[in-house]
Design brief:
single chain; alpha+beta; Double Stranded RNA Binding Domain; 2 helices; about 35% helix; elongated; DRBM domain-containing protein; dsRBD_dom
Length: about 90
């Protein structure tokens, strides 16, 4: 899986600005697997942590951030569209 440079990260930041939420905070995580290390990312949006789906080689760390941003944006958009969401009470999450 290959991502365009910061496409999802930019979209997520824009959505946070539109919803007047703090900008997302990215947390890189690693997991030692035999003689190698796998890397992934978690993104915190409005106090909620969303994990990336995949683990990547260290040279593809930005892909991990993009994956986490895509997951967070999808969650944000689905929550904002949901008629039973907290948006009617003034909050996205």
């Amino acid at each position: 899986m290959s991502y365009s440079s910061n496409q999802w990260q930019s979209k997520l930041a824009e959505a946070c600005r539109n919803y007047q939420m703090p900008l997302p905070q990215y947390h890189v995580v690693s997991d030692r697997r035999g003689g190698r290390t796998a890397w992934s990312c978690r993104v915190e949006v409005n106090g909620e942590i969303i994990n990336a789906r995949f683990w990547f080689d260290g040279k593809n760390l930005d892909n991990a951030k993009e994956d986490a941003a895509e997951m967070a944006l999808n969650r944000l958009n689905s929550t904002a569209r949901s008629p039973s969401s907290a948006t009617s009470r003034g909050s996205i999450w």
